[in-house]
Design goal:
alpha+beta; Ubiquitin-like (UB roll)
Length: 107
């Protein structure tokens, strides 16, 4: 089970051990991470689970698919090079120590 950390816009950090095989969005909502709205429940249809992958991790994650890239054009907060939909990142052991930054808003 990888340890993952979310950095809130105010700089506070929320970390926990998450189960492998679930999406970052599922782990975040299950652990009560404020800032992950997840209106569509993980179908890549709403962009309300937008996160900024820490620069140290961007190249270590599988690249986004076309549907995710399309939805990233719909984020409420600024899209950045490390922008991802957390529903499209499936956790595995290699993601031990993953750091994600939360945008200031999702809607």
């Amino acid at each position: 089970m990888p340890d993952i950390s979310f950095i809130h816009p105010d700089g506070s950090e929320q970390g926990f051990e998450a189960p492998e095989g679930v999406s970052v969005m599922q782990a975040a909502t299950g652990f009560g991470v404020a800032g992950i709205v997840a209106e569509c429940g993980g179908s890549a249809l709403c962009a309300t689970c937008h996160v900024y992958v820490d620069a140290a991790w961007v190249d270590q994650l599988p690249p986004p698919l076309a549907n995710e890239l399309e939805m990233l054009d719909c984020t409420a907060a600024e899209r950045r090079p490390g922008s991802r939909l957390s529903c499209q990142i499936t956790l595995n052991a290699a993601m031990q120590g993953l750091v994600l930054h939360l945008p200031e808003r999702q809607q």
